[in-house]
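Long-time lurker, finally posting.

We've been working with Diaminopimelate decarboxylase (Sphingobium lactosutens DS20) and I want a structural starting point before designing mutants. I don't trust myself to interpret raw outputs, so I'm hoping someone here can both generate the structure tokens and explain anything notable. Sequence follows.
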Amino acid sequence: MDHFSYVDGAMQVEQVPMEAIAQAVGTPVYVYSTATLERHVGVFRDGLAQLDDPLIAFAVKANPNAAVLATLAKLGLGADVVSGGELLRAVAAGIPASRIVFSGVGKTAEEMRLALDHGIYQFNLESEPEAEMLSQVAASLGKRAPVAFRINPDVDAGTHAKISTGKSENKFGIPYDRALDSYAAARDLPGLDVQGVAVHIGSQLTDLAPLEAAFVKVGALIDALRAAGHDIRTADLGGGLGVPYDPAQPLPPSPADYGAMVCRVTQDWPVRLMFEPGRVIVGNAGVLLSRVIRVKQGAQAPFVIVDAAMNDLMRPSLYDAWHDIRAVKPSGARATANVVGPVCETGDTFAMHRDMDVVQADDLVAFMTAGAYGATMAGTYNSRPLTPEVLVSGDKWAVVRDRPPLRALIDGDIIPDWLAD
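Top reply, 14 upvotes:
Generated this for you. Predicted structure of Diaminopimelate decarboxylase:
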């Protein structure tokens, strides 16, 4: 459920008309709903209500906007970060370091020092060499780093290949069958407090079976590690719950279904459980608002050319991802059309042969379920400025990231002396 609805024939977000935002800020623009964020956090938390003090660490990569993070911080969420920049963003937004988990395969020594200085809750290590580097960094600072190894359980998540992370050929984690040796080696390294196990098999999962298979493996590993003398106190079960992009497809499992499965599988685990939801919190809380530039007749169907492009919303060109596209003021007429952006790439395509609202030049359209992996993946290809972002709360709204002026793109380049006049 989200808080984007039609009132008197026009879409609004909570109590704010989308047309008003477009007129004030211009398009394209990302628009986020506070009420939807609050609801999704509540639903996810309710799904885990039977657990004892779980740590819910929002996956910052899904949406790192400071206002979004500050909203989630006030709701009590922690953060899962994958870079020093995300760590600093989370802390600046009010998320305590004691609720931050640092994941990712390529942590640098500098990022490790930064995280140790802040006193984060846990490092999720993804290789033995990473454990050795962190040991050296922690020992040099006279600190002990709380760590877990991310395990690669070789489980097919059944999602898009580019967002599958738990198969043996993926770059993430250490192989399941090498885990006992990796933990034994880490126990002898100075500066490490080996406290947990972590797993994350992919994103946009629409079936609980792969998650359950991975969690069963984690449970068996925890038993084996504790039998080998390791004091395992945490288990990070990652994230990955899918959200409904296409209303014609079956609904993904709900947080309640997920929580019931987790409680059943982990009921005897003597650990604190941790979770890294991202998309399921912010996906439906945001839309990309765009204006139609013109409609061009194609060989088989018209091309609806909008002012948003692949640099603003990369998911369709990167993953062939499906986003519902709705007219802000639908006439009731529908037709088959192709929706494309202005960037000079054939891949700048949002939908082909899509049954959708009939629109014409200057109409507004909303790309739904764009709150996750939207603005955060945007770039400036074709010298297009980054997309602004707006946060709405009830009848109030604010720009929470400005659209940079085009001049800023030009002034960011430096012409060397030998080319200057």
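Before you design anything, note these points.
Residues 384 and 406 are 7 Å apart (CA to CA).
DSSP finds twelve helices and 21 strands in the chain.
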